[in-house]
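Example record

The entry below shows one chain as it appears in the dataset: sequence first, then structure tokens.
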Amino acid sequence: MQLLHCELEDFRSYPRARVDLHPRANLLLGPNGMGKTNFLEAVYLLGTASALRGHRTADLIREGKEAARVSGRVAHRQGSPVVLSVEISPLGRRLLLHEKPAASAAEYFGHLEVVAFTPADIQLFGGPPKDRRRFLDRVIFNHAPSYLDTARRLRRSLEQRNRLLEGIAEGRASEGELEAWDEGYAALAAEVTRKRSEAAGLLRKSLQNIYDEIFTKPGVPEELVDMHYRSEIALIEGGEVSAEKVLPWLAGKRRGDVRRRSTQLGPHRDDILFTLAGRPAGTHASQGQKRSLMLALKLAEVHSLAERRPEPPVVLLDDLSSELDERRTRKVIAYLSGLGSQLLVTSTAEGAWAGVFGGEIARFEVGQGRIDPLIV
């Protein structure tokens, strides 16, 4: 898939902008603070309807304005181009297909798949488990957009169960009322656990090879990298996880749940352990090792999508050249180019980028509130 052009209106630092993109590589040049990352965030919003850097959606609206809009035209190998738009206001967001409201989120998602890397991503390894769960959920969403609905239903079911536990603890409800809730919750918990386990397995399959190929220095012994999905539900014996197998475990924890007024078994307590040389990356890896591991993880995600989806995703690389030396930068770009992904890259200076891409690149100068094509 290729994003042919992207239009912004009152989005972050941009009053209005339109960028016609190259099908292979696009380099956005300019000093820090000029809005390069804001443009990547607009493309990310267009594909996912969520913010790239953890902002509230309303924070994406340009200061002093009441609403913002991002639109884009996406071409696929088969079929006609698709026009996507996201409109955001303090009241929420609106998704449009061909300028008409999408009938559902499921109808909108899947037309533009994006994988993004930003320097802040290395905080994943030392951050809270919820960040790693969110990362894995985003991987699943790119493979199967319908997963978003499953994750939302699980969250609602968990909230309802916890409210009932609080009612039981306060004498306003009985334990017998949990049985009806537990069947639905167990089914959703089992489904999310299965999908997360499968997604972690897909990434793990290529993670070591990618790390060795791109990030291990010549003449230096290979570093063993790995990731393990940690879930109490996934440890249930007897093969594939199912609601029938989860229910007895859930019942066994019922009294403790009532005492704590919260559910102790479920995907909301999962984590992913990333290791380097057998030790936790979050506490033992250097900043350079974390950076390399994070990029290898993102490349593994792109690889998994390229293998299992009709077309590779669009890849957003924020300030990559400041994170890697030229040799590794070239290898990252060569790897992504080999998969066929369209690339959007930000940088403060052109440096060696021309040599990396050759003539298959469009360059843009980013200033305050504008993006102008550079003719070389």
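Notes for this example: The domain at 133-308 is CATH 1.20.1050.90 (Glutathione S-transferase Yfyf (Class Pi); Chain A, domain 2). The chain has twelve helices and 15 strands.
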